[in-house]
Amino acid sequence: ARLEFRPWDEQLFYAGNSRGERHGGFNFFQAAPFDSETINAYEIGAKNSLFDNRMQLNSTFFYYDFSNRFITEVVNNVTTTVNAPKAQIYGVELQWILAPIERLQFAGNVGWLHAEITSNLLSQDNTTSESNPNGFCAFKPVGDRHGVGPTCDGALPQNLKGNRLPRAPAWNASMSVSYGLETSVGTFTPRLDFAYRGAVNYRQYENPLDSQAAYTRTDARIRFDLASKPLWIEGYVQNLEDNDKIKTQVEAQLNWKRYYWLAAPRTFGVRLGWKFTGDAS
């Protein structure tokens, strides 16, 4: 269901609700079932065209209520899917595109996100490593929110209620600027992109070994589109900061070593392309 209100041609306000489901299944080795995940999603927002259509400004607030949210955990060295009975995600996002003069464009967005498990869920972090030999678990009785690791006796399960959901940074933002310089032989378009991502955990235990600190990434490129032919060439540099410690995924453990997937360090290159226009001539 969706309700829209347009007081003027340049403004649109809306509110809506939707419901979705992902069906359950069985884990491969243990054949243990997990239930279907459902979500009730609520959203209110506004879309605005300002300054004689030179600026697009959009904002939204969203609230997602999950039942039986899919959560991944390791059981007997096998990755399995279990259900968190309740979880909530809500946040706000602001997005803009600004073209103050012809061929110059600024764009960006910023978002804030709250995402947590909101029901009791007993689980044990069974991953180990040389620096974390007994896994990450709680010294305190079952029912306390946080484990205080890195090691403990008995490997008691934690109650994950209140823990942040995986891959859910509190803040993220991005900005870009580009300018198209037209000449008699073609168009030069330099572009600069900047992104910020807040700290994130890749698993639900809030184990420091699973965390990625906040970081920035800056990319630059310049593209030339030939006027007489549908040919373009582009030079680019990615990750100007040369940050070689950006984790993109955390594995469990193998031979008492903990493994991470890392993003590429500073990378540069050249691309060449041809645009197919569909013109038989």
Concise synopsis of the structure shown:
This protein is mostly beta strands and 281 residues long.
Structural class: mainly beta
Task: Summarize the main sheet.
Answer: 12 strands, antiparallel
Beta percentage is over 45%
Count of DSSP-assigned helices: 0
How would you describe the overall organization of this protein?
The chain starts with a strand and ends in a 7-residue tail after the last strand. Strands 1, 2, 5, 6, 7, 8, 11, 12, 13, 16, 17 and 20 form a 12-stranded antiparallel sheet that branches. The protein has 281 residues and is mainly β. β12 (181-182) and β13 form a beta hairpin. It contains no helices and 20 strands.
Q: How is the topology of this model organized?
A:
Blueprint: E1 2-8, E2 11-22, E3 25-26, E4 33-34, E5 37-50, E6 55-75, E7 78-98, E8 104-117, E9 122-123, E10 158-159, E11 171-179, E12 181-182, E13 186-197, E14 200-201, E15 211-212, E16 215-226, E17 231-238, E18 247-254, E19 257-262, E20 267-274
Antiparallel strand pairs: 1-2, 2-5, 3-4, 5-6, 6-7, 7-8, 8-11, 9-10, 11-13, 12-13, 13-16, 14-15, 16-17, 17-20, 18-19
